[in-house]
Design brief:
The chain is mostly helical. It is built from five helices and no strands. The protein has one domain: de novo design (two linked rop proteins). Helix 2 packs antiparallel against helix 5 and helix 4 packs antiparallel against helix 5. It is elongated.
Length: 124
């Protein structure tokens, strides 16, 4: 598999971008917030792309689907942490919580569509 294969997946590109946005936000937090809270937010956000790419690299549709399910779980976990970060005033004022949540919603739709695509190939 060459790198451009996975990079052509819109859901992968979106998940990579989301993880980078979260990193850029958390890196600005104080040490306590980073250690107590930020680690889990970054880990869950980065896990979305990591699981999409791991499933993609397995070359078997059933395994790919399973890793996409894990990615979807990480997406929901990241959403929870984003909401908590906003309630705890950790999201910088220049970062809109609405934009982050909208991005997660769009990413969820793309991921579900990708899972449906994989499932069609499993049924063949």
């Amino acid at each position: 598999m060459n790198r451009s294969d996975i990079d052509s997946l819109e859901v992968f590109k979106m998940s990579m971008s989301f993880g980078d946005q979260i990193w850029d936000s958390v890196i600005q937090w104080d040490d306590f917030s980073k250690k107590a809270f930020g680690y889990q937010l970054v880990r869950s956000a980065d896990s979305i792309a990591a699981n999409i790419s791991e499933g993609y690299g397995r070359y078997f549709f059933k395994e790919n689907r399973q890793f996409c399910y894990i990615a979807r779980g990480s997406l929901y976990e990241a959403k929870t942490w984003v909401i908590k970060a906003e309630k705890r005033n950790l999201i910088p004022k220049d970062t809109s919580i609405i934009l982050l949540l909208n991005e997660l919603e769009m990413l969820l739709k793309k991921l579900n569509a990708y899972i449906n695509y994989i499932e069609k190939h499993i049924k063949k």
